[in-house]
Design brief:
The structure holds 2 protein chains of 2 kinds. Chain A is of the alpha+beta class. Chain A has 16 helices and 29 strands. In chain A, helix 15 packs antiparallel against helix 16. Chain A is globular and about 95 Å long. The longest helix of chain B is centred in the last third of the chain and has 25 residues. The chains are: A alpha+beta, B alpha/beta. At the A-B interface, strand 1, helix 1, strand 9, helix 4 and helix 6 of A face strand 5, strand 11, strand 12, helix 6 and helix 7 of B. Strand 9 of chain A pairs antiparallel with strand 11 of chain B, so a sheet runs across the interface.
Chain lengths: ~575, ~475
């Protein structure tokens, strides 16, 4: 059955129609004399419609189509980390070896290296009862990450023999009493979520070191976030910051339909960046998938599934995984392009009617779960969205916002003012704070949620005052409101603005964030007192220690110095009052 | 099957011809149509099946009838490439237009172009000095970048493109650029303007031109840029040239794309443009860059005119998502008589940080650029306020910024069409001179150490000592 041959009947761009075979839906087939990889996406009478993952020009009707009997799957096992793949898990360095700098076609490459030997340490014994998802041993995959080898799906029984030692990923390391053999590698179809026992409510924040994100609009481990924004507003920089600094143990970064040079930048930069949590290169925990905008569109469609399946695999080992998809709009456009070639009835703006359900299915694969092995793992998903013209009323943005719990709205206006990250603090939101507040109280400071509320209230008040200022100028406001404006300006310039390209400022831990916020509130308090005592607003605002406090964030060792700077500021404000 | 002629045309619709019952024909194959008057038209297969083949005809389908003979040439579209392309003028389908002989091919290159493996790319980081202050200081260009000019009808984008082509050079290097120029649907007048200018400056000998004019077939425009980029890739990656590709006007290209989409009765995306326009544009723009192990590079300057000056129109919008920044031309500045009327505020170069600074341009470049931007942005905003409340309501700082916006436009942006300013003495020193009109205490984006070193007052102060 599985090697049944058919013939090409029609070719239209990446969509090929075959006759003479009856494959299953989503089965992988080999198309044409060159054996291009494709996937069955529609059955229609005796015709099978196939999306082909490679360029189709030069292919003719009458060429063969061969079934493989398998659905689109990824190879999972040691060797995934530090790798960079295309949308269908072909390693890009391997492709360079075989076809040079340009990606031609008809070349197959395995996702994992079958030759490489790994040091396997068994963690179960003969006679142990094991079932799918259980960890049977470990491999030190990179300096920082221990790869936990799990029992593949649909396998269970009593261990007959298991050995530690050096193996390739296809060699048998464990034999069960019923004769089934287990190797380190397993495969999983990308379009199916991997199984788990149950989902938990997320209650631990994913700490990103980005002040506006962590402090005002936090994401939980296992949560979902959307970042819509027009071009030039800093989506990619934000995504890259998250990939660099978030405290996930594993990061899967999908460059879906984006710029080639951007992926190169990531590839150049990541091996040199040091993970603040482990002090080892960030690359050690990263898997990258790069399907740039000019690579075949069907592989772009597959890339997000390839990425999330790899993420789930590490989750099942009990890790906290963060997945960044930049950009989900390109993925949606790939769906639209395929859909229009299939002549499907379009929904809004030409997107297929199933767009929102596909988006929902994708984000639903995030979550904090109890794994089959009983441990706790999570996949957090952060999707960038590129709305045309920056208008988020379009279908992809709307479909995303209906599902995700965190919305980081990038704003072209802020980007133009060079306020980065250009996340609008007035329309962004996070639904996680309530679930996370207890964690903040226990781990950072007992009044953390109150400080956050105060900061966001000040920003809200500022936006109302600004409307008046636009009309009458700031001098017309009463002095306490002028102070509020000054405090809000401090929040914006000192706290919310963060320089991604500055060695020190690029990352602030939660403790420091809390102290910075506290410093702003202290300033407000002291200034109020000083003004009530007859101080001049201008004198209070211009105390040199405040400038030192604000500039200090660019210097190393700021976290240790901030309390001293804060008391110095208070002292000087007091003095300014006495001077009057 | 090569050489066999079919007379099985069933339908002709716009630029498309539908044929029945052929031998197997490849997707993307090149087609010749033999008309009854003996003339020949060229086309390409857009859709192929056992029963029907759809051919897109580059020269338009005028006088095609059911008796027209159709020949499939058994190959996809290829361009004959050789170093001999330099100094030549070809038409939109790659045939000589300058009266010269055919190109003697060293190789035949597939014009679709394969994607560069992202792993094989090299990060662009060599600063290109264009001699135009607005670009060099605020949206610095680097080799291997794709930086479009977002313009609109009636604005001098062509002058700017030509000035860049003339003046572009790497600081501290003798490597020259070869210019590949691609015209899509521009008028004969504009074309003459380009050619005369290239001739006048002697740059023509160092250029390859691919020309599809406004009265040439619209569908041909879909292959013209692909020919130009194929030539550019060949020159860059086989012969180590640094190639500057200028193409104008992308808006005409996108119109042609829409025309084909409509004729095929495809489901349209925004404003009738096909849903795959992003991918299609990416397949052009992404053919810029540097690759490991090759000396040459491709830098792209696409020019597009924004319909109705609207930057959210699908053409500039989708382009902006692919390209590494944009240079925005402003009608307001143009009407003030300022050339080049580049509005630095919405302009952006994403690769700027990689190409500037110590050892590349000058150590203070980033700070100066940030300060210029901030001061000009605030000054411009104040103009709005002054219109309402008058200058009397402004404080000292605001007055200085307001004045700065004027001198920035008048002295920094404004330069003549043949003025080639060097980055250090020409552009950055000028910036410092202008910034010295603002009190140092308001120049918060400048590091103190740069103020000590470069500020004119500090400098002259030191000299007096």
């Amino acid at each position: 059955m599985s090697n049944e041959n058919g013939l090409i009947y029609r070719i239209s761009g990446p969509v090929v129609t075959a006759v003479g075979i009856s494959p299953r839906m989503y089965e992988v087939v080999r198309v044409g004399d060159e054996g291009l990889m494709g996937e069955v996406i529609e059955l229609h009478g005796d015709q099978s419609v196939i999306q082909v993952y490679e360029e189709t020009s030069g292919i003719s009707p009458g060429e063969p189509v061969i079934r493989t009997g398998q659905t689109l799957s990824v190879q999972l096992g040691p060797g995934l980390l530090t790798q960079i793949y295309d949308g269908i898990q072909r390693p890009l360095p391997k492709l360079e070896e075989t076809m040079g700098v340009f990606i031609t076609r008809g070349v197959d490459a395995d996702g994992l290296d079958f030759e490489k030997e790994w040091e396997f340490k068994a963690s179960v014994d003969k006679g142990d009862e094991i079932s799918s998802g259980h960890v049977i041993g470990t491999v030190q995959e990179t300096e920082t990450i221990e790869h936990r080898v799990m029992v593949p799906p649909n396998v269970s029984g009593k261990v007959k023999s298991i050995k530690s030692g050096t193996f390739t990923i296809k060699e048998t390391v464990c034999v069960l009493e019923d004769g089934s053999e287990i190797a380190m590698m397993q495969e999983w179809p990308v379009r199916h979520p991997r199984p788990f026992v149950q989902k938990y409510a997320p209650d631990v924040p994913l700490i990103t070191g980005q002040r506006i994100l962590d402090f005002l609009f936090p994401l939980a481990k296992g949560g979902t976030a959307g970042i819509p924004g027009p071009f030039g507003s800093g989506k990619t920089v934000t995504q890259q910051q998250l990939a660099k600094w978030s405290d996930a143990q594993i990061v899967v970064y999908i460059g879906c339909g984006e710029r080639g040079n951007e992926m190169t930048e990531v590839l150049d930069e990541f091996p040199h960046l040091i993970d603040p949590n482990t002090n080892k290169p960030l690359m050690n925990r990263t898997v990258m998938i790069a399907n740039t905008s000019n690579m075949p569109v069907a592989a772009r469609e597959a890339s997000v599934y390839t990425g999330i399946t790899i993420a789930e695999y590490f989750r099942d080992m009990g890790y906290n995984v963060a997945l960044m998809a930049d950009s989900t709009s390109r993925w949606a456009e790939a769906m639209r392009e395929i859909s229009s070639r299939l002549e499907e009835m379009p929904g809004e703006e030409g997107y297929p009617a199933y767009l929102s359900s596909r988006l929902a299915e994708f984000y639903e694969r995030a979550g904090r779960v109890q794994t089959l092995a009983g441990s706790d793992g999570s996949v957090s998903v952060i999707g960038a969205v590129s709305p045309p013209g920056g208008d988020i009323s379009e279908p992809v943005s709307q479909g995303t916002l209906r599902i995700v719990k965190v919305f980081w709205g990038l704003d072209a206006g802020l980007a133009r003012q060079r306020h980065f990250p250009a996340i609008n603090w007035l329309n962004s939101y996070s639904l996680y704070p309530q679930a996370l507040d207890q964690w903040y109280r226990d781990n950072i400071a007992s009044d953390f949620p109150e400080v956050r509320t105060e900061i966001s209230t000040l920003l809200q008040i500022e936006s109302e005052l600004q409307e008046i200022v636009q009309l009458v100028g700031s001098d017309a406001l009463p002095i306490d409101q002028q102070l509020t404006l000054e405090v809000a300006r401090m929040i914006r310039e000192f706290f919310l603005q963060q320089n991604a390209f500055h060695d020190v400022d690029t990352f602030s831990d939660l403790d420091l964030q809390y102290h910075m916020a506290k410093a702003i509130l202290t300033f407000q308090e002291e200034a109020k007192k000083a003004i009530a005592g007859g101080g001049q607003l201008e004198d209070v605002v211009n105390v040199p220690a405040r400038t030192d406090l604000m500039r200090g964030r660019f210097e190393k060792g700021y976290a240790e110095r901030i309390s001293d700077l804060m008391s110095e500021m208070s002292k000087q404000i007091d003095a300014s009052m006495e001077a009057n | 099957m090569i050489g066999k002629e079919y007379r099985t045309i069933t339908d002709v619709k716009g630029p498309l011809v539908f044929l029945n019952k052929t031998e197997p024909v490849s997707y993307g194959e090149i087609v010749q149509l033999m008309l009854s008057d003996g003339s020949i038209k060229n086309g390409q297969v857009l859709d192929t099946s056992d029963d029907q083949v759809i051919v897109q005809v580059f020269e338009g389908t005028a006088s095609v009838d059911r008796q027209t003979g159709v020949k499939f040439l058994g190959d996809v579209f290829k361009l004959p490439v050789s170093k001999g392309l330099i100094g030549r003028i070809l038409d939109g389908a790659g045939r000589p237009r300058d009266g010269g002989p055919d190109i003697v091919a060293d190789d035949m290159a597939d014009i679709i172009g394969a994607a560069i493996n992202p792993y094989s790319r090299q990060s662009p980081e060599s600063f290109i000095q264009t001699g135009i202050s607005a670009i060099d200081a605020c949206t610095s260009l680097v080799r291997g970048q794709k930086l479009p000019i977002f313009s609109a009808s009636g604005l001098p984008h062509n002058d700017i493109a030509l000035q860049i082509a003339r003046q572009a050079k790497l600081v501290g290097s003798d490597d020259d650029f070869v210019v590949v120029f691609c015209a899509m649907g521009i008028t004969a007048e504009e074309y003459n303007f380009f050619v005369h200018d290239l001739e006048r400056t002697g740059a023509l000998e160092n250029s390859a031109l691919f020309v599809n004019l406004a009265d040439d077939p619209a569908v041909e425009r879909l292959i013209t840029p692909r020919l130009a980029l194929t030539a550019a890739e060949y020159l860059a990656f086989e012969h180590d040239y640094h190639v500057l590709v200028i193409y104008t006007d992308m808006t005409n290209y996108c119109e042609s794309l829409r025309q084909i989409g409509a004729a095929r009765e495809e489901v349209p995306g925004r404003r009738g443009y096909p849903g795959y326009m992003y991918t299609d544009l990416a397949m052009l723009y992404e053919r810029a860059g540097l690759v490991k192990g090759k000396k040459g590079s491709i830098t792209q300057f696409p020019i597009l005119t924004m319909p109705g000056d609207d930057i959210t129109h699908p053409i500039p919008d989708l382009s902006g998502y692919i390209t590494e920044g944009q240079i925005v031309i402003s009608r307001e500045l143009h009407q003030k008589g300022i050339y080049p009327p580049i509005n630095v505020l919405p302009s952006l170069s994403r690769l700027m940080n990689a190409g500037i600074g110590d050892g590349k341009t000058r150590e203070d470049h980033k700070s100066v650029s940030d300060q210029l931007y901030a001061a000009y942005a605030q000054g411009k905003e104040l103009r709005g306020l002054v219109a309402i409340v008058g200058e009397d309501a402004l404080n000292e700082r605001d007055l200085q910024l307001l004045k700065f916006a004027d001198i920035f436009e008048d002295q920094f942006l404004r330069q003549s069409r043949d003025e080639d300013r060097s980055i250090s003495e020409g552009t950055l020193d000028l910036a410092w001179n202008l910034l010295s009109n603002i009190d140092t205490k308001y120049l918060v984006r400048l590091d103190q150490k740069w103020i000590d070193k470069y500020h004119p007052d500090e400098k002259s102060g030191k000299e007096e000592e």
